[in-house]
Amino acid sequence: MNILVLGSGGREHTFAWKLAQSDRCKALFVAPGNSGTKEIATNLTIGVTDFEAIKSAVLEHKIDLVVVGPEDPLVQGVHDFFLQDEALKHISVIGPQKAAAELEGSKEFAKEFMVRHNIPTAAYESFTKHNVEEGYKFLETLKPPYVLKADGLAAGKGVLILNDLKEAKAELKSMLVDAKFGDASTKVVIEEFLDGIELSCFVLTDGKDYKILPTAKDYKRIGEGDTGLNTGGMGAVSPVPFATKAFLDKIENQIVIPTVEGLKKDNLPYVGFIFIGLIKVGDAPKVIEYNVRMGDPETEVVLPRLKTDLVDVFEAMANQTLSQINIDIDERAATTIMLVSGGYPEAYEKGKEITGIEKVTDSIAFHAGAKSQDGKVVTSGGRVMAITSYGNTYQDAIKKSYQSIKHLHFDKMNYRKDIGFDL
Ligand SMILES: Nc1ncnc2c1ncn2[C@@H]1O[C@H](COP(=O)(O)OP(=O)(O)O)[C@@H](O)[C@H]1O
Ligand SMILES: [Mg+2]
């Protein structure tokens, strides 16, 4: 089978790494890819939302299966684009169609979906610039901290959590009236604050059945002890030690099953990954959000634990025979530590040479914001490389990743030294 992966991050390197291990993968392409995918696949210089260029590449390289990494092309309807095109409609796409991708594309859509299908989540109301006064009143009924969410895609920056009522009102105004997040904050969802520990659950669905992948926990803040600015993710651990069998059963019964059934009832065709962001409040799982693709860096710990051939899994999803597939999971823990450019998530420099990659033998170096240039690997983004290790315990795995990092170097390299600290 010829396969195309869309995206260029650590997530996509991990997909490519796993797909390349399959005997059934004949030719592997990544668009646009990075220095890591270049070693195991053919990179194509095509943007992930350039549908016409994707079409040409798919036809030229006789692609049978397209795996969509990031959310943007899904929310913009790449799957629908394939289904509506005579030359493309027989090609399998892993990722939901536009209507279902709204679960990530609109926070309000997701909240309405959860309420409709009795899926536990924070109480909420949503507002536009036409009823901003009512928004102030709603804030007055809540206890701090106040959670304000831009409705649309805002690259992980659209959620504000504020302690002060006055500040919350001012931010609400700035989002709705002054378009703080552009079109993304035309609508704002205000939510009840949930106090608890976060984890993520990953589900595969073919639209009929589902399979649950291992849980993972990621670390979003730049600073140790979960302090400082939010990032795309600084590290991850799988499985999540506090996710006991009883708790996982609750997630499956109260959240996963109603979600998959809800998609069917609402006539939202879905072939792809469902990322369910959760908070454990006491013993109760509550949904914070849906993403319609895998997380990054969670992919870098979840996929390495999947023993089943990923081509078989994707084929079963596309053919709606997922129920016939066994998902075998490696018992070992996996952890990843993200190396980032100094200054990230604020301004940082690019083009720094990364050395020592060949000395990493006990871990897997998944490239993210890294590219090949004149035979060298240089930084090209804020999150540069995810260093994944296996261990009998998550502590062993984390230790291994930190040992491997000692071999790696680039100017102003930064990473968190405390991944897993709260477990
Ligand atoms: N209702 C809530 N209560 C407490 N924390 C929340 C709540 N909603 C979101 N958060 C926090 O804000 C983060 C970002 O919110 P999320 O809905 O995941 O938006 P996005 O990932 O699109 O930025 C979450 O990971 C969580 O830490
Ligand atoms: Mg989130």
Provide structural commentary.
The chain has 423 residues and is α+β, with helices and mostly antiparallel strands. The protein has three domains: 2-94, Rossmann fold; 123-191, ATP-grasp fold, A domain (Dna Ligase, domain 1), CATH 3.30.1490; 197-405, D-amino Acid Aminotransferase, Chain A, domain 1, CATH 3.30.470. Helix content is 29%, strand content 27%. The protein has 13 helices and 23 strands. The strands form six sheets. Strands 12, 15, 18, 19, 22 and 23 form a six-stranded antiparallel sheet that branches. Strand 10 (197-205) and strand 11 (210-212) form a beta hairpin. The protein is globular, with a radius of gyration of 21 Å. The model has no long low-confidence stretch (mean pLDDT 97). The site of adenosine-5'-diphosphate (ADP) has 13 residues, from strand 7 and strand 17.
Residues in helix, %: 25-40%
SS content category: alpha+beta
**In DSSP terms, counting alpha (H) and pi (I) runs of 4 or more, how many helices?**
13
Report the C-alpha radius of gyration, rounded: 21 Å
